[in-house]
Amino acid sequence: MAKRANLWRKRRRALKKAVSAFRKGDPEGLHDVRVALRRIGATASALGEKSVSRRAKKLVRSLSDQRQLEVDRQLLARVRELGVLSPDVAAGLDARWDGLWTAGVREAENVVTGRPMRRLLRRLKRLDAGARPEIARRLQGARRSADRAITHPPGATLRSSASLRSTSGDNDRELHRYRIAVKRARYVLEDLAQLGTPRAEASAARLKAVQEALGRWNDVRLFRERLESTRREAEERGAVTLALELDHLLEALDRTVEKARADALEAARPMSNLVVWRRRTA
Predict the structure, then answer these.
(1) pTM exceeding 0.70
(2) Which one of 117, 133, 149 terminates a domain?
(3) What angle do CA 49, 54, 57 make, to 5 degrees?
(4) pLDDT tens-digit profile of 198-252?
(5) DSSP string computed for 198-225
(6) Domain count, the chain
(7) Residues 154 and 238 in one domain
(8) Are residues 267 and 145 in the same domain?
């Protein structure tokens, strides 16, 4: 029972630690809060705690825009280092996105320190105190469902640049759903590893590598979308120089997005073999 109780305790402590880091201004604080909440949501979903799962997912969504802006600012800094944009245009984008970031900080603080977060922490404490003996069995069932969701990676049709451009919207949605499925499968495996399930930790490590490749694709894809929106706004207000420079950057980013997508698909390709292997060795 101690190990089973520790599963909820670990999730609660991780969230409290991330909240504390965010409040102290840790650069990774916002990211850590969202990761802790996603893990709680995955564990709660696997164990049938639907209200906890809904609360955690709602909190994650409320922080998503600010986190993506954080990632976009980091990618913009890398673009500046490469000298793709003129100094004036790069500085203008920096100032614009810094303003958006500052405006969103207070809202993020309200989410992280607000009543819904405190309620979630209290609920996790009660779950820790009343951990049930069927946790391992429920997690194994969630693992089988997660395996089915990742057995067939999207992919095979996305090899040429022409097909990538012509069908990227549908394919991106499919790949995004697969990214979420991989993330959930990894979290379930990490829960099982916490309970001492053999080979769960090694399988989770493999999924982590796939998740990271999918995450790199998603980051650069969303970064490009923000730049595209900024370019449209520049065009509408007659900022010709900014619009032209962003056109060139977007063209260059098209190749980067395609490469990241191809890398993600390649990383996901062995998943069907991994799932079959896990079933044979379970």
Answers:
(1) yes
(2) 133
(3) 120
(4) 889 999 999 999 999 999 999 999 999 999 999 999 999 888 888 999 999 999 9
(5) TTHHHHHHHHHHHHHHHHHHHHHHHHHH
(6) 2
(7) yes
(8) yes
